[in-house]
Amino acid sequence: MSSSDSSSSSASDDPNPKLKPQPLESQFQSSLTLEDSDGVARTDDASAAEQQQEQQDEGSGNGSVDGVVNVEDNGHRDSSDREEGIGSGEARDGDGGSGGGVVWRRANSEVELEVEAPASPSSSGYAGERGSSGASSASRADDASEEDEIEEVGNDGDGAEGAMDSQAEWTPGKRHVDEDDASISWRKRKKHFFILSNSGKPIYSRYGDEHKLAGFSATLQAIISFVENGGDRVKYVKAGMHQVVFLVKGPIYLVCISCTEEPFESLVAQLELVYGQMILILTKSLNRCFEKNPKFDMTPLLGGTDVVFSALIHSFSWNPAAFLHAYSCLPLPYATRQAAGAILQDVADSGVLFALLMCKHRVISLVGAQKASLHPDDMLLLGNFIMSSESFRTSESFSPICLPRYNPMAFLHAYVHYFDADTYLILLTTRSDAFYHLKDCRIRIETVLLKSNVLSEVQRSTLDGGMRVEDLSVDLQQHTGSTSRVEDKPHTETLERIRESSLVGLGGPAGLWHFLYRSVYLDQYVSSEFSSPINTHRQQKRLYRAYQKLYVSMHSKGIGPHKTQFRRDENYVLLCWVTPDFELYAAFDPLADKALAIKTCNKVCQWVKDVENEIFLLGASPFSW
């Protein structure tokens, strides 16, 4: 066992990924780790790759770099072509020998422009200099746990932290519509999303009035057009603590401005989902409208959908499906889920393309027509569209929708009916005249669900919740010795702290606080319920973003993929284990013992295997994207 606080191993070590994965202890035993000066140990490959990545990120100028513009170079596609900084910090020919003001580097078909200048992503007044104005270094260090908006004191005297302690208390809809880019409060928002056309016309903004942000949208469009005119494509701009991420989808431009320290890959994936939500409403055929009229105003087509986009963006801070690209099932007895699946299959055989029974964002049962598969991202977007639209709750509805991953160019028609406040049925068909047929199908389904007590079991499961780390049983007496350095504390003191935390109810065995388990084959995931000490919205968001960064690190093309990773910081011990069959992400007490944490993760995997009939939808068609 390596003596380290953090470790990772390359996926290429496994000669036959189809074999049954070895216990997690052996995964770490076979990892040769190197400890960096920051106390983080990595494998040889991961260490070299991360050092190379850091060199690319930091640049080679003599002074501090305040701004980075990263663009793709369409003229250089050879990924093996790597050139170090031209001039290594000196001015390029033709720059007047200014002594390192601008450095060009080319690596992996990308061009990065590093500028030693005041960091501001636009000229229209956006405060991009090193985070929000007036922010201290301490507050910037805690950005990942802060709310995405500034704290405002309400009439009751409580700040944003008190108002946002639970996801259920979040109020859907457009926020702060009176703001514009001249408002100090607007500039202090930690995370903005924008949708605009290639002519610079604003389509959607998370905060503020789109019409008042026309000048700011034009600035964003100018940045994209300037880079495209040079034959490249802008990917992101770094300005102090802010990261401006761009996504170009034909005539539609999507931009995220964030100082939450989320990885670039995560922000791009979020922009992809925002674009997918727009396609679900309008289909990709809207491109033809822009071809006919470049100044086409699509705002009327999206009228009333602000609540849909705001709900989706809010889910980026609590729903793991947004970065795992998997869906979760409501825990149910196997017989109950089978009863629901049987009636849905009977309906699917009568001409329904997809039949979904859901409780909030969780799946109860899912059935598709032969050779038809539903992508988890489509399920996320479809569920968000239905749950955030109040009209679906008031009466049965028949609405045209588009599934971006299934067919982005065509409409399907969705019949939606709520059985109670949280449980609803979705029937998807290609026929626009199938309303009455689908209504008859719904009546048949409802009759069977009531007779088989499926709906009552759903309500019971909703009240009982899911898996809890406190229910996991691990024999801590079988520990054979400490293999990790914990702030130079004796092993006996560490083990005593772990046992004490379990006794007083702070998490589960070995200081386990939370876990995420993703089945690779089923594209489904299960997560434990939040419990003390992760029982506030702020703490849950911090953990969510820690998982997000860990996921990107494990799957990064630049420094991964890895099999295992063990990280320790002031907030958690994070352990990740990736095999061809599953992915496990676990959070422990920051003083947790490494050997006990590894043993606990093995127990979690066995626990999930024992109850998979209740927490997963087995027999679902595997997805092949």
UniProtKB/TrEMBL annotation:
Top-level taxon: Eukaryota
Bias type Acidic residues, positions: 144-159
UniProt biased composition (Polar residues): 24-34
InterPro entries the UniProt entry points to: FUZ/MON1/HPS1_longin_1, FUZ/MON1/HPS1_longin_2, FUZ/MON1/HPS1_longin_3, Mon1
Low complexity composition bias: residue spans: 1-14, 63-72, 117-139
Region Disordered: start-end pairs: 1-182
Domain FUZ/MON1/HPS1 second Longin: 351-444
Domain FUZ/MON1/HPS1 first Longin: 191-311
Biased composition (Basic and acidic residues): 73-95
Boundaries of every FUZ/MON1/HPS1 third Longin domain copy: 511-611
BP terms from Gene Ontology: protein targeting to vacuole; vesicle-mediated transport
Similarity comment: Belongs to the MON1/SAND family.
Cited function: Plays an important role in membrane trafficking through the secretory apparatus.
Stated name of the protein: Vacuolar fusion protein MON1 homolog
